[in-house]
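Bench log, entry 3. Co-assembly request; chain sequences pasted below exactly as received.
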Amino acid sequence: IAPVRFDREKVFRVKPQDEKQANIIKDLAQTNQLDFWYPDATHHVTANMTIDFRVSEKESQSIQSALDQNNMHYEILIHDLQEEIEKQFDVKED
Amino acid sequence: IPGRHSYAKYNNWDKIVAWTEKMVHKHPDMVSRIKIGTTVEDNPLYVLKVGKGNEGKKAIFMDCGIHAREWISPAFCQWFVYQATKTYGKNKIMTKLLDRMNFYVLPVFNVDGYIWSWTQNRMWRKNRSKNQNSKCIGTDLNRNFNASWNSFQNTKNPCANIYRGPKPESEKETKAVTDFIRSHLKSIKAYITFHSYSQMLLFPYGYTSKLPSNHEDLDKVAKIGTDALATRYETRYIYGPIASTYYPTSGSSLDWAYNVGIKHTFAFELRDKGKYGFLLPESLIKSTCKETLLAVKFIAKYILKHTS
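Structure output for the full assembly:
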């Protein structure tokens, strides 16, 4: 089986300012395939917490729109996950 | 024959197995390999016993690679064994530690998941066991321990990344580790597990905000351990009980080890803080391992001195 590729997948970092925004993240997790990097799962998401999650290229636009519409603080930690996966091997063989 | 193993690079499972054989061969008086069980896909679970002493001496159990995608974790366990054998007789502290205690090092806990993260899905976390009545694969081994195992509802979905398994210790990997620790309880005085990322040094409990009876002691050790770590490159770690410092988690190895009687248990969340996350570049492996070793040596020294 060919390995899974993560072309143009993104990792978002979001900081919900209050419970309302934390619930928006939880709702987005219901309707999108979010892979939580920190914390490990949706139910740990609370206000004033740093949240990192991975999302496919396709879903990332709608995620970004939802965050913008709700004036949420976020940054994109990784813009193309596949690129980072390949770049992690940055030490030549001895 | 697998390619060349390197402490500066991430090594796949074949290289790590070859490396364990090399370490035993090169240091027969200090390193022995114990097969503590097999995984769901019949891969061997190897623990390296590192130290000069006999089995009766005080010991510390260390495991790496419980979550497949956290590659810096197995890299640290390999580095630890390498530095222990390399600096014995040269570094005063390491020599004293290895003369008077043993380290049981499990370089990769979740072997099947680790292999899968190399060959199929770099983002994989769980093991690779099949789940009854579900198409979803895998159990989160760090939710599978018998420590308030079923206290969180959302760990019961087999498709979730934090699925706890059908029952405590349902997974062969978990059972192999708990059986080994239970059979060595007399000598094991500390348990340290390595994860990534977020740069934290954590101690029990995860399943409750209640503090363990010796939390001041654990807090002191964690503080000095993180201070020691920072002396190398000024990398800042935070420390504290899992539930309040990280977030509440059930069924963790740390809480189980504490409850089974090992009163000094710690979890490292290694570099970084999210810039690369699970994809820490190889060029940062050595510095991460060097600084972490300073903390581990301090903890070991403390255990040697303060446990009976």
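The interface with chain A takes residues 3-4, 6, 8-10, 119-123, 140, 152, 154-155, 160-162, 197-198, 246-249, 274-283, 285 of chain B (CB under 8 Å). The longest strand of chain B covers residues 188-196.
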